[in-house]
Amino acid sequence: MDTARRGTPVRRINSVVASLPETPIRAYSSTNNLPALQPLNEIRPEGLSRRHSFVVGTQNQNSNKRSESINLHFHRLLYMNLYDCERVLFMLRKIISIIKLRPRLFICTMATTAVGSGHTPQWELVQQLLWKHRQSLVGKGFGNLTTTAIPANVASATGRMQYLEVLVSITLYYIRSYFPKHLSEESQESMQANERVRMTAMELLSLVVSELGQVIESTGGSGFINYLKDMLNRCRMQKAVLCCLLASMEVESSNNNIYCSSEDNLAFQSQLLSLLHHLITLESRFANTTQPKTCTISFKMIHAILIGNKEEICSLTSPRYLHYIHGSGISAQPMFLASLLLALQSQSFLTLHCQWIQLITGCLPNLGSALGTVASATVNQICDTLEALFDCGDDEVMIPLHAVTGLPPDYCIILLEGLTTICHYCLLDSVYSHSNSLLSMLPWGMIIPTREGMAVVISRVMITFALISNQLDDDAIPADGGDISRKLLRQYVSQLTTPIAMNHCFVLISAIGYAWHMLSKPLIIDESNVLEQILPEASKEQLVLIDVIISIKALSIETVIENVKSIVKSVLSNKKQLASSGTSLEVDILSFFYHLSQRLPIASIQGCWQSVCNTIKECVQLSISNHGQFILLAILYTHVQKVPVVDDRKVLQERQDILQKLIQACSIIVGSALQQSTWLRRNLVVMAPSTSSTSGSRLSRSSESESSSKFSNPNEVTVQQNVQALTILAELLAPLIDIIFSSLEKDRVSSILSSLMNNVTPYLKNHCAYNASSYTASVKLLATLTNYQYTRRAWQKDVYDLFLDPNFFRMGSSSISGWRTIIDNLMANDNTAFRDMLNRINLSSTASLNLFTSRDQESEGCAQNLKRLSYVLFSGEIDQYQGFLPDIQERLADGLRLPLTPVVHEQIFFCFRILLMRMSPHHLTSLWPTIITELVQVLQIIEKALTIRDPASVKYHVHSICVFLLTLRLPNGIMLNDSAWLPLYLSACKLLDLALALPSDKLPQFQTYRWAFVTEEDYLTLARENSGKVSSFPLFTPCLEVMAGLLDEVSFYITAFIASSRFE
Question: Which residues form the domain of 206?
Fold first, then answer.
């Protein structure tokens, strides 16, 4: 230091430069007599994530891609022999001491003093050394130029150079210098000393750049700034630093031809980041005096970063894309962004991640137009790292960080603090103007200024918080470096979201909506989960998002609702621009608000009705999507269920008006699959599909635009939507009407439901297979409405006509229970309905006389009426119709008096079965003789049909047996084995099976006749005891045992014939 005080700084630096060793340096090029560096894909650093690695190509690709990879290392300078490193270290450290002693004086003097101003003996030596170095860089050697005269123009230019430019150039030479490996084998100490030279030169250059920034800040002269900009361009300082930074992403590899250990590389990169920070700060001081330039990073790169497209980012970070763009700052260079991504992805640089994050957070005010891109890339990569740390990411290639040793103890905390700092600066502290344009907050929209673009990045942060929150316990520590519990994580989330919620709640709720969509899972279209498609149950990760909003104490529920309304309005007002987005943000926002309403306490719900009311009204007026209409109905249902009683007449009227509008909107959706059958009058029918519907297709619950891509036929989308509308109405409409409309206003309900029933009835009339899902949903809706009698006028006539439809019983099993409820409500609450039904079932021969109908049609009509009677009895409660039992018995007797018709008698036996289940035993005492008589008669017919009269003639002729069985007739000419008789036989057997299966206390009268059908246990015991005795009368064989023996006999003959035919 004493030596530094003597003389002026110019003289000291003059002597220092002159004393630098004459060491040959060559540019790292394929023209040198050294092995060329292999492409980066062949020397992939260990631990480097394969997500965004620089993949140039395979080994057998053409030389163009190989040369592109080599271009990344043209900045390197190679020593051809050893030099005195200690001498250089001494002089560099002396200059550092001078700068630290009087930094302002040193920098100003160096910047204003030319090399040729003093004409000292050292001047000629400095001039000659600079000339030698420049000649050596272009491959002309170094030592053989001692006697060569310097050209006049070069000498003049060198004389005008300022000492500051000389110092910057020399330090950059040392920073870029390396030893080849063949020299490292000769002297390991010299190699290590060269690394110290490079680090010391980096320290010196950092001091110079830092002091230059302070000089500009204090003086601000445009002339000095222009000089510095020209000087840095001549020295190519920014390009050299970026090339060194990108090259430092490599670690020691056997394929690398230069000496650079991994430890030295980490230390070099650490020092390089400090220099980079000062350079970015210096460039921002330049930009303060001129207009800021736009970011030179391409549109595709920014878009890929915002949406997290890893494949596209990987392709854009190839060497073909990574080149230095002159005239742009460091932060706007693709090389800087690529280095940032590689460093944060690589597990080899875990110890430097914290320093990289500090670099970004420290340079946030100086990034200029590249702020949004750099911040987005950093946040996205931090989120990927956090997910990998807790092993909850979706990247199977990347090694989980909890399996990596050597993590810093506060690694996770630093990552979370970095997220918070970046997001807060971009949204709260930056100078960009705020706009609530939704396009600027969606990843599929325009690329936008920083503040709006960070909304997408915040959604990425919310997704990460939701994923890792479910991996944590309240107090557990998952791994080294992951020193965080769920409680601590919530504190950091609160620190991040609370300021944003207070200043930019619109941005936060938009981010939550997009995160809600990304955390949802696709569903499989199935009739059993239609309601789940409309209102899916929130996942654990989505519940975390709701907890985040609830935990923000400074955020009121009214503010959340108002921002939800603003977001929906923004989406719908820009629907044309978002037509190709593939995601409906308004649906995700409303779905989030619906689940939030379910988790809110009643006290919070009571005070925000007006906000909810305004939101629903405006959404309906803005023609929201069909799925959005369904969610609005669910939101209304949630609020009404939590606050059912309202004293304010105005609020009650608002609820009724909103419900009526939503019913009309859903009714339009229901009627979207209907068309007029004739042009003369409005008779609606279900549209037949043009192609068969695709079942089992995967559908995302987010939007209709996404669902349309899953269906090949647009009509299928319409059917799916009207089924969803019918299902949501079936679940919510009846309870909503019952709560919202008071007892004095129930009369208005019928008129409101009339238009809805006009669109529902056509689905109930259509029994085709393609209408099955709509039919089932319509039955569910009608069943819920019929539970409330004040709605009777809206559906009574339609239900009665449907019940009398000849195709009424053509339905799926899932609709039977719904129709039971409907028919029970139709008959039970009207004393004349069942009587009218009985009057229609008149089975006497005179009543059914009609000249224009055949006997078969009359029989079919009688059977249908009996089946309807049985279904009415089955739909009611026990003994509900016991007062009408005499009339029912009379109708059955009229049917039995008719000629033996199998279709009618089949339904009579079916009605007997229903009566056994729906009437108490003591009410059926008078009916048992008729039941037993008819049952025995049919069983005797079956027995006669199975009896083979001449076994010898048909023993070996199965054809004859079949002909005999199929042509058996009664004396009156009725064929017993016609296919129409088989259902009768089955119905009789089912009746007998039911009577035998029911306990004796349920059918006490039947026990008197039981012996005629089956053998009792006591009787079998008696028969075994008397088996050796001679009896005066034969033992009785029950009817079912006789039939079983006949069936065995027929089976034996058929089996014997088949065996004999095979033998022949």
Answer: 70-113+162-250+261-290
Q: Ramachandran region of residue 37, left (φ > 0), alpha (ψ -120 to 50) or beta?
A: beta
Rounded-to-integer distance, Cα 165 and Cα 228, Å? 9
SS3 534: helix
Residue 796 lies in a domain: yes
| Identity of the residue numbered 368 | G
Do 818 and 957 fall within a single domain?
A: no
The amino acid occupying position 185 is E
Residue 25 has φ and ψ, to the nearest 5°, of -130, 135
Number of domains in the chain: 3
Angle at 859 between CA 908 and CA 845, to 5 degrees: 90
The token pair that represents 631 in the structure block: 């969610």
Pair 567, 586: CB distance under 8 Å: yes
Q: Which ranges in 552-584 belong to alpha helices (H)? A: 557-573
**Block residue for tokens 């040369």:** 67
Q: Is 863 left (phi over 0), alpha (psi -120 to 50) or beta?
A: alpha
Give domain status of residue 1034, yes or no: yes
Residue 701 in domain: no
The 8-class DSSP code of residue 368 comes to G
SS3 for 668-711 is HHHHHHEEECCCCCCCEEECCCCCCCCCCCEECCCCHHHHHCCC
Q: What is the pLDDT of residue 1050?
A: 73
The 10s digit of each residue's pLDDT in 534-590 is 888 888 889 999 999 999 988 899 999 999 998 888 888 776 544 444 457 888 899
> Is the predicted pLDDT of residue 434 greater than 70, yes or no?
no
Question: What is the distance between the alpha carbons of residues 616 and 635, in angstroms, rounded to a whole number?
Answer: 9
- Look up residue 921 and give its amino acid: P
Cα separation of the two ends of the chain: 124
Q: Find out whether 245 and 280 touch, Cβ atoms under 8 Å.
A: no
Q: What is the pLDDT of residue 319?
A: 52
Tokens of 129: 């050394």
Under 8 Å between Cβ of 546 and 538 = yes
For the chain, helix, strand, coil in percent to 5 are 65, 0, 30
Q: Establish if 88 belongs to a structural domain.
A: yes
CA dihedral 982, 987, 989, 992 (to 10 degrees): -160
Q: What pairs with residue 969 in β-bridges? A: 975
Which residue type occupies 733?
L
pTM for the complete prediction? 0.78
Cβ atoms of residues 77 and 178 within 8 Å: yes
Instruction: Please list the alpha-helical segments (H only) found in 139-187.
Output: 152-160, 163-175, 181-184
Residue 983: how many CB atoms within 10 A of its CB? 16
Task: Say if residues 229 and 111 touch (Cβ distance below 8 Å).
Answer: no
Strand partners, 84: none
User: What gap in Å lies between CA 282 and CA 660, rounded to an integer?
Assistant: 65
Residue 292: φ, ψ to 5°:
-70, 140
